[in-house]
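Colleagues,

Please find the record for the two-part complex below.
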Amino acid sequence: MSVKELIKIEKLKKYFPIKSGIISRVSNYVKAVDGIDLSIPEGQTIGLVGESGCGKTTLGKTILKLLEPTSGEIIFENNNITHLSASKMRPFRREMQIVFQDPYGSLNPRMKVESIVSEGLVIHNILSGKDRKDFIRELMRTVGLREDALSRYPHEFSGGQRQRIAIARALALKPKFIVCDEPISALDVSVQAQIINLFIELQEKFKLTYLFISHDLRVVRHISDKVAVMYLGKIVEISPSKELYKNPLHPYTQILISCVPIADPSRKRVKTVLKGDVPSPINPPFGCSFHPRCPIAVEKCKTVEPELRDVGSDHLVSCHLV
Amino acid sequence: MDNVLEIKDLRISFASDGKRVEVVGGISINVPKGKIIGVVGESGCGKTVTALSVMRLIPEPPGKIDSGEIIFDGADLLHYSDRDMRSIRGNRISMIFQEPISSLNPVFTVGNQIEEALSTHLNLSKQERKERVLELLTLVGIPAPQRRMHNYPHEMSGGMSQRVMIAMALACNPEVLIADEPTTALDVTIQAGILELINDLRVKMGMAVLLITHDLGIIAEVADEVYVMYAGKVVEHGYTADIFREPHHPYTVGLLNSVPGLQENKEMLNAIPGVVPSPDNFPDGCRFQDRCPLVIDKCRTDEPLLEQVGNAHTAACWRRAEVKKIEN
C-alpha cells in the first residue's frame, strides 16, 4: 500500500552565517540543519525529537520557508517550492501553517481574538461579511472555545486557551499541513493532555498532516505515526513509533528513552546519563557527530561519518555499530 | 520521625485590586531529615509561594503570611528578624530555582559567585575558599573545574549553570535544600543527570530536599513522600509508592492519567476538563468540584479536610472511597 506523500524534503540544509570583524566577514557557519531527507505522508504525524539546539525548530521553519533554505529541495504535493518567490509562494502558504511553543508570545496583545483568527482570511481574501463571521464562530467551537471569546483580547485567556486560539488561527485557512513546534511544553500537565487530544481530534476531522516537534518523548510517542530523532542538525534514527520505542537502535535514542522519567515508582530502571553537552553546531565533531558522548564509540566513529541506512521494517539508523 | 522543617497551617495572601486574595490556604508539610519530599501541582497551586515563604522571600507587600508556623531547628522562622534570617538563608536552608541562567549574575565569574556564599557565612581564608569552590564544582560534576571557575555564566550551558547553582546552594552544607522546578528548563538527558546528582548529594550529605515540580515522572523517580497541591490546598499526601499505586483524590488520578506513558498507542488521553480556578474566584466547598467526575452536592458546599485513608496516607475528598471507580 502506498500512501501519498504530502511533503518531501531532500538534502535540506540551513546554515546561519557567523559574521565577525569590522567588515562583518563571514567567518563560519552554524549548521543548524545539515542535509536532511524526510517524507511526510498525507494524514500522518511525524514526531521530531532532540535536545535543545539540535535544529528541530529550524527544520520546521525551513520546511515552511519561513527561513530560506541554504540548499536542498522542498517538495509540497509534487510542487517544488524551494525557490519560489514570495508572491508565487502565497497560494502554498494557505496550505501550511504553524503553531508555536509560547502562546504568550505568539498572539498580538493589541488585537482582538476575532482579528487574530481571521487575519489569514482577510489576507487571502476568503469569505466576507457574515459568512466570514459564521465561519470563525464555528471554528471557535471546533477548538473548544466559546463564541464570546472573539471580542476579547489574548491577555484575558489562560495558556491552554491561548494555545486553542493559536490552533484556530492555524486552521482558519483549512491547511493540509501544520508544523506544531513544541505546542504544549509551556502548558500545565492537565491542560497538555487536553491540547494533545484536540490535535488528535482535529487530525481525524480535517485529515491534517503534522510535523510534531517536541523534546518530550512521551508526548511524541503518543501522537506520532513515525518518529525522527535529530542530533546536531541530522536525523540519526527514524522509524514507526511503536518500533522505535520498543527497539531503539542508535545509542543516542536509547539514552534519550532511558532518561524519560516514568510515573511509576515501582519501575526502577537503569538510567544512562549522558556525559557532557551537545557539541557546538559550528564545528561538529568529525566522523559521527555523537562519538564524543557515545558510550560505545570505536575508532571508526571518530573518522567516518555513518550513513542513514535501512535496517528493515522501515527503520533507518545512522550508526556504524548497528 | 525527626523533621528538620515543619510547615504548619500556613496561609499566604496577596493584595490584588484592593482585595486580599488567599493563594495558600492552610497547608502543612513535614520534611524529615535526609528525605526527598515532593510537592506536585499545576501553576497557580501555590507551590512556589510556599517554597519562597520558607526562605522568607515573599515580597511584602503585596504578599503577606497571614498565619501559620515554619518550624526549623525548634524555632519559628516567621518570627526571625531580617538579620537572623540572612544567617539561615543560603547557609542552613538554600534554594535553587527553575531558570539557572537568569539566577546567576552575568557580570561575575561563577567561581566568584560561589565564593560570595562562602564569605558571607563562613570564616575561611581566601585560599580555603578557593579550595572549597573547586571541591564544590567537582562535587556537582563540572568537568575541568580549575578552568570553569573563571567562566562567566554566558559561557556555560543550561545544565552546567544549574550545576553551578547547586554548587552555590550546597556551599555551606545546608540542612534543607529547596529545589523549585530544578530541571524544567533543561533537556531530558541533562535532567536525568541533575536528579541523580540531587539524590546522590542527599545520601552523601544527609540533607533533606523539598522538591517542587509539576512532573509526576520526576516525583516517581526520586521522592520518598509526595504532597499533591491544588488551588492552594494540599489535597493528598502519602509515601510515593502508595500515592501512585492507590491514589485517593480524583485530582491525583487525573494528573496520573494526563501523563502519556512510553507504552500505549495513539489514542485519547484522559484529560482533566476545564482549568484551575483563579485565586480570587475559588468556589465554596471543594476547589476541584468543577473539574471532578465524582462531584456531588456536598462538594459544592462543604470543604473536605485531609482524612486518613491508609498508612501515613491522607486525602481531602468526600468521595475518597469511590475514587477507584474513575480509573477506567
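DSSP finds ten helices and twelve strands in chain A.

Comments are welcome before we finalize the supplementary table.
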